[in-house]
Amino acid sequence: MTSRLFGTNGIRGVVGEDMTVDLALRVGKSVGSVLATGPVAIGRDPRTSGPMLRDAVVAGLLATGHDVQDAGVVPTPALQYLVHTGTFSGGVVITASHNPAEFNGIKVVDRLGMELSRPEEERIEARFFAEDYTLAGWNAVGHVHPNASGTGSYLDGIASRVDAGAIRDAGLRIVVDCGNGASCGTSPALASRLGCDVVSLNGEPDGRFPGRPPEPVQANLEALLRTVKESHADLGVAHDGDADRAIFVDDRGTFVFGDRSLALVAKDIVSKNGGGVVVTPVSSSRCLEDVVRAARGTVRYTKVGAPIVARTMHEIGAVFGGEENGGMIFPEHQLCRDGAMTMAKVLEIVARADQPLSQLLAGLPAYSLHKTSVRYKAQERDVILARMKTMAAGLRVDDIDGIKIHYAEGWVLVRPSGTESIFRIFAEARTEEGAKALAARGEALLRNSMED
User: CA–CA separation, 16 vs 26, rounded Å?
Assistant: First the structure.
């Protein structure tokens, strides 16, 4: 079996265990050996291990002859925008995104600011595992230069892509929960620049994440929900640790699931465009397809993973894309998930509609999602999925990523986890009871497929 270094979104692990200085140095040398000649941009989130791992990666890049421009603590999409709009051979971000403080990671982007394709990752992995590096001579090693321009140009880029005048005229009050992450220096400033009255939560960067865990799920956002209600805000927004995602709270202080905000933005963009293709993973809610088709657009489904969504958008010229976890991609801006751009777009939608966010969301189709999981023997994965597809003969089945079976009342998706020997089961229907029933049907079919 071929050794693998990269996961769904870069390389991640617990610092001092899976994620070490030695590994980071070797990754830096491997990346530097594969990237074309030219400077490399690097940035990080505020995790306490960030400077240590950054310096190790930088040493590897310098050793392979690349100059490095250090952008400091910035959101991942800000570093990607710096690369996308500059003349870099690529970029590196030291971040573990939504994972707890003891984790950190290394994400690599190409010269367009896009996360690497799988073949590009494999080239780096081949160098890493063979310890085959293209090292520069003593008189050709690279140099490090600070680059503090990234944040300003990034915010300028976002502001130019929305109707800033409409947002200013609306006089919105917004609560921004940065979660002590990389967005502390960007999202509150952007909202203020757009004329919003900003209430900031967890706005000091701190890699220990003392305010709340960096994953913006409902259980971690009690302070945001409460503050939106108490301050009579028009909406609230929360980011993950590296700010490539945005999750919302409406004007009533109600948590907004990511599939709802994704559908709201898709509806707006496709309607304005008079059609177009929206790209999303196979696990996304039918709500998205409903609103896109009503606006004369189409949906292209992909395997799960933001890099796959972005690559597909680039290949087919999609007008919008995203995931149900709050990660949205605006191709006119850049081809990666961008939490601050997502925040600005939702502000624009609310401002131009002159309606509360809760009312706009109430106009979307309603579905219920139920999730469960089943363990399996790793070596039997492909056989099980093949059996399941055969057993579902006569039904509409998609095998883009796992097995997705469509029924009149909804759908059920069975897909293997990328990190452990578990089949994750997702089921969606109009009601909670219907979703649970479909999940049970999918689990029964899966267990039958697991029998010899």
Answer: 15
Note whether 392 and 445 are within 8 A (CB). Answer: yes
Per the CB < 8 A criterion, the answer to whether 299 and 277 are in contact is yes
**Amino acid identity of 450?**
M
Q: Where are the alpha helices (DSSP H) in 41-141?
A: 50-63, 76-85, 118-130
User: Do 378 and 297 belong together in one domain?
Assistant: no
Distance CA 162, CA 351 (A): 11
Q: Any idea what the CATH number is for the domain that residue 249 is in?
A: 3.40.120.10
Active site residues: 97
Phi, psi at 322, each rounded to 5°? 170, 180
Q: Please report, to the nearest 10 degrees, the dihedral formed by the alpha carbons of residues 324, 326, 332, 335 taken in order.
A: -80
Contact yes or no for 9/306 (Cβ under 8 A): yes
| 349 in any annotated domain | no
What would the pLDDT profile of 231-259 be if each residue is shown by its tens digit?
999 999 999 999 999 999 999 999 999 99
- The burial of 357, by beta-carbon neighbours within 10 Å (0-12 exposed, 13-18 middle, 19 or more buried), is given as buried
The β-bridge relationship of strands 368-375 and 422-429 is antiparallel
Structural Rg of the chain based on CA atoms: 22
Instruction: Calculate mean pLDDT across residues 15-37.
Output: 98
E-strand spans in 202-268? 235-239, 246-249, 255-256
How do 328-330 and 403-407 pair as beta strands? unpaired
Distance from chain centroid for Cα 143? 31
Q: Is the pLDDT of residue 1 over 50?
A: no
Q: What's the pLDDT at 452?
A: 62
| pLDDT at residue 367, rounded to an integer | 95
Q: Are residues 141 and 21 in the same domain?
A: yes
Amino acid 54 reads: R
Over 70: is that where the pLDDT of 302 sits?
yes
Name the residue range of residue 446's domain. Answer: 368-450
DSSP string, 144-191: EEE---HHHHHHHHHHTTS-HHHHHHHT-EEEEE-TTSGGGGTHHHHH
- Indicate which CATH number applies to the domain containing 395: 3.30.310.50
Residue 2 confidence class, pLDDT cut points 50, 70, 90: low
Burial class (CB in 10 A: 0-12, 13-18, 19+), 391: middle
Q: What is the mean pLDDT of residues 89-109?
A: 97
* DSSP structural state of residue 378: G
Give the side-chain half-sphere CA count within 13 A for 389.
14
